[in-house]
Amino acid sequence: AARGLLRASGGGAGDAPAGGEPTLRHRRAASAFALSTVPLLALLVYGLFGSPDLPGQPQAARVAAARGEAGDLAGAVARIEAHLARSPDDGRGWEVLAPVYLRVGRTDDAVKAYEAALRLLGDNAVRLSDYGEAVVTAGDGVVSDKARAAFEKALGLDPKAVKARFYLARAAEQDGDRTLARTRYAEIEASSPPDAPWLPAVRNSLARLDGRTPPAGPPGLSEEQASAVRGMVEGLDRRLAGQGGSPEEWGRLVRAYAVMGDRPRAQDALARARAALGPDPARLAPVEDVAREAGLVP
Which parts of this chain are annotated as the region Disordered (predicted)? Predict the structure, then answer.
């Protein structure tokens, strides 16, 4: 039903999450930035360590809590989808549904729902920023050209739009322009109230650019979990270096380093992928696509 609904609205749909997925799919995000700036590889860590909102609960309690919240969300999604099946031109309905899709991990559906809302309700800075964030989330944390265009348009409507400013700072960082990235992050920090929920993500980014260890690792992860993410990426790197791998695996490695803000290692992984996979353009295409999305090549 959801796929047909999204097709009727003018877009496709992603798959609904299967039962038993990591609890991140069903958790309440501490902030929009925290959800969308955690690399997709970190989802595996949440599956191993549990939801960061439930740090002290045993596994059985975490599973029970996740099931309860998942049921509530599933009911909310079903109700909104039923309404939109009857009234597909209700732009406000699509705008309400989009962040729910994002929260349950249906990122492609979230992108399409935001596109429907923009088409029906028109542009404003908040709507464009939320849409861009969904595009980033669906793209494993990479700020693609499509996302940048949305954020830049949002800033044209509201130069103070924090979410758009944050992701354009992240885009500069992914492009390797550390000076511009640092300036943008610092401007956000200076203009934000002391209790702003996005400040931890901004300060982590500044610490990384300054060569300091971020106080809590990637947004939303404990130091132990952040270390696990790094270990997973490094393990993939060692395996590909020793045994080789598919184009998709090399692409995941390039993307992981890019999302982590480690441009030199992303470029090194890209060079090694090209050497390992040979000159066949079709075989290299998945890796080159990732490199372009990450701003590693023109």
Answer: 1-23
